[in-house]
Amino acid sequence: MVPDISTGGRTYGLLAYLYGPGRRDEHTDPHIVAAWMPELAPDPGRDPNATLKQLTDRLDLPVLALPKNRRPARHVWHCPVRTAPGDRHLTDAEWAEVARRIVHATGIAEKGDDKACRWIAVRHADDHIHIVATLKREDGRSPRRHQDGIRAQAECRRIEKEWGLQILNEGDGTAAQRPTSAERAKAERTGRTEPPRETLREHVRQALAGAVDEDEFFRHLVEAGLRVEKRLAPSGDVLGYKVALPGDRNRDGEPIWFPGSRLAPDLSLPRIRQRLATGSLEDELASASDPAIRTARPASARRDATHVAEQAVTVVAGDDEAAGAAQLIGVGELLDAVTQTAPASTRRELAEAARAFERATRSHIRAEHADHRALRSAARGIVRAGNALGKGEDGGATAMLLSTMVLVAMAAIRWHSARGHAQQAAAARRAAQHLRAAYQTAAAKPMKAMREQGRRLPASVRDRYADTVEAALPGRADRVRREPGWNALTATLAQAEQAGHDPEALLQQAIGWSELETAGSVTDVLVWRLRRNGKLPATADLPRTGVHLRTPEPEPRSPKPQTEEPAIHNDTGSSRRSNPRR
To answer: Are the C-beta atoms of 310 and 348 separated by less than 8 Å?
Structure first.
C-alpha cells in the first residue's frame, strides 16, 4: 500500500480531476467513501444536486474564514493511497477505514479532535483512493503534520500486516523525493517520457561522474544542455545551485528550478563537495593533464575499472561499515560513467541499472569518502576515454566490466539486507537484473567467438585443461564443464599458455581473487578474470596456427552445452545443464 503526499493551491482543480473521466477515461464511478463529517460533504458523484463548487466551498471554508495574509499559498493536502499490484480489491468500507487511519496518523484529523482539518476520500478506481484535505483547522491553526509522509508509510505497513496485504519495504528517509502527481500529470500532458525532476537527477549524477572539481561539474551540467543558476554569497562564493530543463516553465513563463537537494539528498552542493574532496586537487589535475589518460581507449579504461570493481566486492563483503557505504557510493558513480559512454546496444539497460542502484547508494551509515577514491578515478577514466563500441576489444572489455558489476550488485544486496535496509536491497536487486541483461547483450559476440575457439582445440588439450580446473576447483569441475562457457574457458587457458603464462597458476589467482558462490556462471567470471589478469585480449582474435589450434580431434571428455547463449549471474548460483554431443 503506497501513500504519496503532495500539496497544491487549487481545491476545485483537484476535485475536477478526481470526479472527471481521467486522462484516458480510466475513472469509473467517482464517489466519496469517507469525510470529516459525511453529512456536510456533498458528493457530486452520487448526489445529482451536488456540485464541485459546493464541495470546494465546504472544504475551503476554514481557509477562507482567515484574513488573506494568513491563508497558506498551498492549502490543499493531497494523498493518493494505492494497493500493490496483486492485492485484493478493498471495499468502500475498508477504504474509508484506510482514509480515517491515514488522516489520524499524519496529524490532519486525529480521532476525537472536533477542530481538525476538513477532508474527504474519493474513490474512482478499484485499487486506490484520493484523500483531499485543506490545511487550516476549524480553529484557524495549522495541523501538526511534521514528517507526514513517513507517518503515512508507517500506518500503511500496519494496515498491510493486519489485513493480509502485500507488505512493502519500509522507507528510512534517505530516498530521493519522488515526482508529485502534478509533475507526473504535466509530463504526460506535454509528451515527456518522465517528469523533469527525474531527468534532471540523472543528468546531475552523470555530470558528477568523472568530474575532477566543482568547476568541471558545473561545466558538465551546461554541456548536458541544462539551465544552471548558482546561489552566490556577497563574497562571491558559491553557496548552492539549481537546475532546470530548457522549455520546462510555469504558468508565468518562468523556468521551473530544482535545487540539487530536492533532486536527491546526496546532490546538494555540500554533499557534492564532500565527494569531490576525496583526493588532492593537484594530483587530480596532474592526472587530467596526462596525455596517456586523455587518449586512453575505452577498452583500457574498462579493464582498469574491472580491477577496481573487484576490489569493491571484497571491501563491501568486509566488516567496515563506513568503507562499505563509501564503496557503494563509488560504484554508483562508476555505473553512471559506464552508462553515459555505453554502446547503444546496452545503454538502455545500463541506464535502468544506474537509476535503480542510485537508491542503493544512500543509507544512514556515514561513508568515509576517501575510501571510494579508486572508484571515482575509474569513473573519470571511463568518461575521458569516450564512448565504447559494441564490438571488438571495446565490446569484450564492456562484457568484462559488466560481469564484475553484477557481482558488485549482488554484494550490495547482501550488505543492505544484513543491515535491514529493505528498500536499498530491493533497489540493488533491480539493478542486478538490468546489469545481467546488459551483460548478456555485451557478451554474446565475444563469448560465442571464444566458444568456437575452444571447440577447435584438440581433445587432449581440452582434457588437460579439465584436469587443471579439477585441481583448482576440487569437486566442482563437472559442474563447470557443463556450463555454456566451458569452451570459452578452455580457449582462454590456451591463449594464456601461448602468451607464456602458467595456466594453473593464473587460474588459481583468478579463483582466489574473490568468491564465486554468487556467480550464476563460474566459467564466465573466470574467463574475464583470466583475460584481465593475463593481459589477454577481451576478444577471441587468436591466430589460426600453433600447437593448440590444429584440426579438432574427437572430444570424448569435453561435453558441449546445447545452448550458445552467454550465461549470466543469478541469485541462486544455479547453472544450466546440457547433454554432451556425441
So the answer is: no
pLDDT digits 0-9 by tens, 109-151: 999 999 999 999 999 999 999 999 999 999 999 999 998 998 9
Fold of 2-163: BirA Bifunctional Protein; domain 2 (3.30.930)
What is the spatial distance between Cα 98 and Cα 90, in angstroms, rounded to a whole number?
A: 10
Q: Which residues pair with 129 in a beta bridge?
A: 81, 123
Closest to 478 (Cα-Cα) out of 493, 487, 466, 492? 466
Is residue 553's pLDDT more than 60? no
Question: Using one digit for the tens of pLDDT, what is the confidence trace for 33-60?
Answer: 999 999 999 999 999 999 999 999 999 9
**H or E segment to which residue 52 belongs:** helix 52-64
Dihedral of the CA atoms 8, 14, 17, 20 (nearest 10)? 180
Say how many C-beta atoms besides its own lie within 10 A of residue 513's C-beta. Answer: 18
Rounded Cα gap, residues 177 and 196, in angstroms:
12
Phi, psi torsion values for 434, nearest 5 degrees: -70, -35
* Residues facing 2 on adjacent strands: 82
Collapsed DSSP state (helix, strand, coil) of residue 257: coil
CA dihedral of 65, 71, 73, 74, whole degrees rounded to 10: -60
For residue 452, count other CB atoms closer than 10 A to its CB. 14
Name beta bridge partners: 132.
78, 120
Q: Where are the domains of the chain?
A: 2-163, 189-277, 282-443, 449-549
pLDDT at 280 over 70: no
Which residues have C-beta within 8 Å of that of residue 428, sequence separation ≥ 6?
356, 357, 360, 409, 412, 413, 416
